Request: fold
Amino acid sequence: MRALFHRPAQFTLFKTVISFRLYTTQFTKLTPFDSELLRCLSQRLLKDARKVLDKMPSRDRHGRIVEWTRLVTKYSRGGWVDEARVLFDIMPERNVVSYNAMLSGYVQSGRLSEGWRFFEEMPERNVVSWTSMMCGLAEAGRVEDARLVFEAMPERNVVSWNSMVAGLVKNGDVEGAREVFEGMPVKNVVSCNVMIGGYAERCRMDEARGVFDGMMERNVVTWTSMVSGYCRCGDVDEGYALFREMPERNVVSWTAMIGGFAWNGFYKEALLLFLEMKGDNGAKPNGETFISLVYACAGVGVPQLGKQLHGQLLVNNWNHDDYDGRLSKGLIHMYSAYGIMDYAEFLFVRHSNTHSVQSCNSMINGYIQIEQLEWAQNLFDRLPTRDKISWTLMITGYFNVGEVSKACYMFQIMPDRDAISWTAMISGHIQNELFAEATDIFFKMRQEGVSPLNSTYSVLLGAAGAMSYLDSGRQFHGLLTKTHYELDLLISNSLISMYAKCGEIDDAYHTFLNMSLRDLISWNSMIMGFSDHGHANKTLKIFEAMVQSGTHPNSVTFLGILSACSHAGLVHRGWEFFNAMNDVYGIQPASEHCICMINLLGRAGKVKEARELVRRLPLKPDHAVWGALLGICGFGETNAEVAKYAAKHLLEIDPLNAPGHVVLCNIYAANGLHIEEKALRREMRLKGVKKFPGCSWILVQGRVNVFLSGDKIHPDVNDMLSILFGDMDKSQKESAV
Reply:
């Protein structure tokens, strides 16, 4: 067994000793008697120390040993291990408890070599001695040595077994922990909690659930570990269901669920649960609770709410518990997310002693949001250490303001590029309509051996769909088929959208049918795809299947449904869905939904009914709604009154709206109102109203060719006209165009 300590001590052990000494020195309180004795022991004044001990109240033999042992424990926990050993050596009498107290001092302070020598010299050892030594080894990461001690133990109790399981779990050997756990002669709730915690931390929730379901007795720790594990894995629904089943809850339980909501993006739910927690008199929030709430407030994006929370922290002095600086980091992140940089700067300067790269990145991101790239660059240049996030934020910031060359320069001098930074470069070029360059960067990324992320493909597929580049989209799909055994949800959704936007609705539907898992985006993408292609019946069938699957529709879903009804002239069904939005699903119709209904009614010749719909809207109609109403009036004489009514409101909101002027002019002309038409055209000239020409584009050999209505300035225009119109002379070609 001596061979266990022939290797040098680990550096982590040194850190453990330092942190232990700092912690225990801060919280150990000494009486005047304790301090006097400690001084004598520190200075090796052994006779004086014995005299101090003799001053202790006279007790029987057992009482003196108990008191001396208590002092050994107290000094050890305070970080004075050497002094505790001197006291142990001068004790006239000792028992196994005294030896265990001294051994615990060595072990807990990380002095394992001395602890092991002391352990071997002990005249008597019991199960506590062996367990203490085993725990010290496991705590220091020497799990194999701990296992050897465990196997050599002459006897074990449930604490020994639990400690071995906990040591293996802590050091990442969950399989080894499971073997020990299954071999336990007697298990208690602590045993199961340790095993559940190990599984939950590694998102092995099926195995954790197996242990949980097999427990005869559970406590609040059991339930909280399960809730936390499900939230850690992203299965917030299951975590919340268990949370609701808990027979009792404490602040840790509430905080686990609040944090589970916050870290998974359910910010509103986190805040609502906190309000519910406040109604539970037995649960008072702690520092962890407020850290989660700060990030939830940042995610909600309501600055007033975040300020109120910060005010509550100050009023109740809760900010004083921020011993590790995490709360201040969260507040800096929150104010930076809001773009309220004066508040963020105040906290950043005030807590400069606890600055971290995370806080600096939050500040950089905040400056980028308010388009203060110079301030962001200045802070970036002053950072003593920068991580990949720092560099990627600056690259993204320059792309956001159109500074493509500066973004590319930052990427070139970036010391260590990862897949996220490459994806930022691809996304930035697409954002600035440089699709060919983005594609080149993608292939350079692969040439350098960097594996693209799913989000990389998603960005490229999204761009291919938005610009109707079907060939490029198919190429990316082909690469995915070669490199991915199974397409995940993000990529599948991107493929559905890409194929639908490129006109290949059958391919989109094929991708949809092959998905093993679908979310709201999957259903909405398919609904919008069928709707845009005029397949109203298929759109409604997909919606019915979506509802039957238990997926709750949102406003985007109804936009696709109403659009499909509009294209197919399904007035009655359109009204049913429009009314069901608020009455059945609690979704307030927006202007986009109203425009779909206006178009639906207009195509059915129900212009006046459309006007009444606009009049009854609970929201104030914007220029898009008035423009839609004006657009359905057509040239009929009976609709001229509605056209004037819509145009009046439209031009009040947007006096320079060119399409509105043109439509109204055409209606005047069609109805013989030439005086009104001439007056309106004169008004257009005075205002400088101009109608923007139509536009189309095509991708040829990686270059985007854009054509405006009546455009004759393209360098290859003559060749194009020759292909289109054959042997016409120049004047004929121009007139044809």
